[in-house]
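Subgroup meeting minutes
Present: P.N., E.W., G.H.
Scribe: E.W.

1. P.N. recapped why we're keeping a running log of single-chain structure predictions: easier to compare across weeks, and new members can see raw inputs and outputs side by side.
2. G.H. added today's entry (128 aa).
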Amino acid sequence: MPRHLPDRPPRFGVVPVFLVLLIIGGLVVAGCSGARSPGLLTPAPVFPAVIRPLDGNLATVVQVHERLRFVVLDYSLSAMPPSGTSLEVYRGSRRIGRVRLSRWSGPGTAAADVVEGGPQIGDIVRPD
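Output recorded in log:
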């Protein structure tokens, strides 16, 4: 007759169990002790919504030459009006000046004389 062994759980050695617990404990401690990034818990900054009409006549001021009183406008994403056109300059939703397109223009850029106000880089230029 075959001999039956009594039902009992297998015996693990003390050393392997201790090593497994030591490794798990080390991973837990190492994961919690690292430097925390301040960006994880801070809310994203709130920026004002900039709504630009899609009429195809917007430009952005990319260079300002205060001494010579002219600006360079970027029309790379919209249609360029004819030279001599008077345009309004806006910073956010506030009108801050007026420019007039000169004859000089390049592919997607145009120069404009400052008629009034003080345009800055990033201002939006559009027809009135």
